[in-house]
C-alpha cells in the first residue's frame, strides 16, 4: 500500500484510479497547496486540452478543502491563458488532493445515458453472465444479466475489471475452485470445458443454486478465454425430478412379481425388469436394448426354448407375432424345461408393445392335481353309490320279508336272521356316513379336540374288546403289547379310540383266517409315543401306500381281489386316521409289502406325553 505522501507526489499510485480513467465525466486531481493539476482522465483532457493551452494547468482558487463535495466556480490557468468553469470539488481521503468533476457536454451526456440504459436492459434480457478472461483468469471485460444470482455485488465485478482482478477472486469460494480447474484445462489445450458450480444458501435462487460454466478459447493464439455462466437451477431441478421419477418407475417395475418387457414403436427392445431376466426366456447376450422382438423370438425357437414340435415352429411363430403386434387374449406356452408361461401383450398409445410374462407352472400343477382329485372323487362317488346301494337293498329286502311275513308265522327263527342283517347293514352305512362327515369337518377346520389325560392301555383294551367278536368271526387272533409303566397321553380319547378302531378294522379286513393282528404301545427315545397296529395279512406294494392314505382312493380292485368282495369297505379308514393324528400334531407311517403284512404307526409328539 503506497504512503499518503507518495500518493500526493505520484497520483498514479492512488487505488481505483483506473476506474476513474474510463468514465465519460471529465475528472482531474489538483493539489490543495497550490491548485496544480496532477492528473486528468481522458474526458478532462478533451475538455481542457493542456497541449493547446501550452503548459501545466493550475486551478484557482484551490482551497479551502470542503468536507463533502461542493460546487465551486474556478479558473483554470496555463501560461497566459485561462478558462472559467463551474465544477464539483470533493476531498480525496488520506492525501492532500482534490477530486474535481467538470460538467460534460449536455447532449453527449444524454446520449451516453441513453446508450447505458439500453446496454443495461440488454444485459438483463440476456440471462448469462459473460466474462472475457486472460489465461490466468484476469477479467478483461464482462456483461452481466443479474450478478446478484451469484451473490456477487456488481461493484465487486467492476472493481475487478478496472483493477486487473481475476475471476477466481470474484466468484464465491465454493465456485472458484472448480472454475479454476476448468480454466486450467482450457489453457492446457482443451477445446472447451464445462463444469457445474453449486452455490448453497442463495436466497435469491430459493436455496441451492446450480450454474453451468462453459469456457472456450478466443483468437488464434488462445490468449483470451470466453467464460459464460448460466443459471441452470430450474433445469437441474427438473432433471433431478425426472431422474428420480424414472428411477422410482424402474424400481416399481423391478419389484412386480411378473416379467415385464417393453418394445418401442419399431418393435425394438427398450427395457425389461429383474423378474423377466430371472425367467431366463431370452439369451442375455442378445436381450439388449435395440434388439428386434422377432429376432429374440426366433433365437428362442432355434435354441429349443419352447416345447413345440419342429414341424409346427413356423406356424407357432406366426401366431406369436400376431399376438405381439395386435394384442389379444393371453397365450400359454410350455418351455422345454417343463415350466409354463402365460404371455400377455398390449399396445401402447405411441405404437409400442408392453408385455407381461407370468410363471404359471404351479397353477398348472395344481390344476392337474385338482383334475386328478376330481376324477378320484367321481370314482369314489360311483363306488360310494355302490357301497350305499348294497346295504340299502338288503335293508329294504329284509324289511319287506318282515313286513309281508314271507317266512310264515312270526315265530320262525329266520326272521331273527333278517333283523340281524338289517342291523348290520345299518351299522355299516352309519360308519360310512360318520367317516365322511368327520373327514369333511377336519378339512374345513371345524373338528374340535376335547383333550384330557388318556391312558393308552385302557384305550387299547377297549378297542380290542369291541373288535373281538369281529376277529373271532374272521378267525383272526387279536393281541396287545404294552409297556410295564405306560405313559399318559394328552389327547382326545374318543378320537384316539376311533383311530385304533379304524386301523384294527383295516387289519382284520385284509388278514386271512388264522392270521394275527397286534396292537402295541411304544415310548420313543425323544419322548414321543407310538401306537402301532401290525398284521400278517396280504400287504400291499410300497408304491401304493400314498394312494392308500389319499381320501376317495380305492386301493384294491374287487374284480382282481376276491378278498375285497367279501370284505368291502369305504376306503376312508386310513385317510381319516391320518387326518386325526395330524390334528393332534402327530404323524402316520405305513410299512407294507405283498405277502409280508402291514404295520401302521401313529406317532404323538413328546409335548403330548407325560409320565
TrEMBL record:
Residue ranges of every copy of the Histidine kinase domain listed in the record: 383-608
Annotated InterPro entries: HATPase_C_sf, HATPase_dom, His_kinase_dom, HisK_dim/P_dom, HisK_dim/P_sf, PAS-like_dom_sf, PAS_4, Sensor_HK_Regulatory
SUPFAM superfamilies cross-referenced by the UniProt entry: ATPase domain of HSP90 chaperone/DNA topoisomerase II/histidine kinase, Homodimeric domain of signal transducing histidine kinase, PYP-like sensor domain (PAS domain)
EC primary class: transferase
SMART domains xref list: HATPase_c, HisKA
Organism: Azospirillum lipoferum
Entry EC no(s): 2.7.13.3
Catalytic function, reaction form: ATP + protein L-histidine = ADP + protein N-phospho-L-histidine
Molecular function GO terms recorded: phosphorelay sensor kinase activity
A UniProt-annotated Pfam family: PAS_7
The name this protein goes by in its record: histidine kinase
Coiled coil ranges: none
Keywords: Kinase, Phosphoprotein, Transferase, Two-component regulatory system
